[in-house]
Amino acid sequence: MQELAKTRTFLVAVASGQVIGTATLEGDYVGSVFVLPSWHRKGIGKNLMQSLEKIAHTNGIHSIQLGASITAIEIYLKLGYTLGAKSYHDQVGTTFHMTKTLWL
Ligand SMILES: CC(C)(COP(=O)(O)OP(=O)(O)OC[C@H]1O[C@@H](n2cnc3c(N)ncnc32)[C@H](O)[C@@H]1OP(=O)(O)O)[C@@H](O)C(=O)NCCC(=O)NCCS
Whole-model pTM? Predict the structure, then answer.
C-alpha cells in the first residue's frame, strides 16, 4: 500500500483502527477496490468510489475508467459505470473495461 501510495491517490476506509477498504486513483484510472468481506454491502465501496470520483473531478478529469472483474460488474453498473470490452492480462486475468462520465 505504501509503494502504491507513492504514485496514486490511495483512499482507505478505517473502522476501529483497522483498514476495511481501499481504492486508488492514478490519473483517470481506478484500481485496488477492495472491502473486507465482513463489511460488504454496507456502503463502504460506494463511499470510496464516490470519494475517488470527487477527487478526479477536482483534478479536472471528466471521465474515469477501471478494469472490473466479472463478479464486480453488477456493482459498478449500479454505481453508474458503463460496460465496455472484455480483455485478458497475465497479472489480473479477465477484466471488463468500464467507464463513467463525471457530472458532479
Ligand atoms: C466490489 C466491492 C468493493 C463492493 O464493496 P461494498 O462495500 O460491498 O459495496 P457497497 O455496499 O458500497 O455497494 C455498492 C452497490 O453495489 C451493490 N452491491 C454490493 N455488492 C453486491 C453484490 N454482491 N451483488 C449485487 N450488488 C451488489 C449494493 O447494493 C450497492 O448498490 P446501491 O447503491 O444501488 O444500493 C466488494 O464487493 C469487494 O471487495 N469485492 C471483492 C473485490 C473486488 O471484486 N473488487 C473489485 C475489483 S474490480
Answer: 0.95
